[in-house]
Amino acid sequence: MKYKNIVILTGAGISAESGIDTFRAEGGLWENYPVEQVATPEGYAKDPDLVHHFYNLRRAALKTVTPNPAHEALAHLETGLVKSGGCLTLITQNVDDLHERGGSKDVIHMHGILTSMLCAVCEHRWEHYDDTQANMPCPACSVQNLCRPDIVWFGEMPYHMRRIESALAACDLFVSIGTSGAVYPAAGFVQMARGFNKATLELNLESSQGSHYFQENRLGPASSLVPQWVDEVLK
Ligand code: NAD
User: Which residues of the chain have pLDDT under 70?
Assistant: First the structure.
């Protein structure tokens, strides 16, 4: 095997063929809602009911979709690398749970996940699969009105950055799949990997804003590109 220690970053493109819409553009719309209303702390402070409603719709939509061959191939890659003494660090910007449902065991959700709630007072987190309301009490500290979806909004610090930086420093190859390269800090991982002298590969439907930073680019739908590439790696 040429590469034993791989870091992968996925974006909305990997879930597109499962039926989850991608994100349009910075300052644009997410599922027809203005981003600043539903994905910023200011939007939440202004209209928490709207924000809960938006994430309730996204959470409910998860029940109608299933992982596609790209999610499944990455789970297969994780098993194959571990068996041969290597490791996969799978980082996703996605807030869906399709990697987990596709069989991946260790997924870093750097922008949070729809199926988790967070209490802004005591920082308790808990799994939650049903609708939420702005006035719901925290199950740990009982304070009302301050429980929010466990999602990293624009202007907030993504999760697990230290673990991600260490993984990039230690890997043999960094791969970006289905992301537009518009949202930082994730968009900067390729430059970080290049700074550590790592090999880099982009798999995307079309050229992204950061395509020129990658040593190799392959264009096409994730559901065929990713299984094909995984087969090559595990050969
Ligand atoms: P993005 O929508 O900005 O970019 C999606 C990228 O995927 C584009 O470059 C597009 O060409 C590519 N793409 C589309 N269909 C594809 C396919 N079938 N195969 C391969 N590539 C395909 O998404 P982003 O870069 O992940 O940034 C969006 C932000 O919005 C993220 O931070 C995320 O938290 C949030 N978001 C998440 C989801 C989700 O959880 N599934 C969906 C929408 C938005």
Answer: 24-28
